[in-house]
# Entry
Amino acid sequence: MPTEFVNWYYTNASDILTSLNPLLNENIVNKTCSSNFECTHDYLIRINSFTSGATASELQSFEQSKVVLGNI
# Structure
């Protein structure tokens, strides 16, 4: 489950994974994704800030579209 994976990272694994790949450092993940769950999950899976940022941007755009359509 994606939620369990992200929670596992933050509670148990950030140090272990950082030792394997410095790009998995919790500070880098948080800087890249802030508190966006989908972005964090994508970043941990792909280790690619560009695609993870795109995920966050598209999700934000989708949420804004829902609000606009809800007001119509």
Observations:
- The chain is about 85% helix and 0% strand.
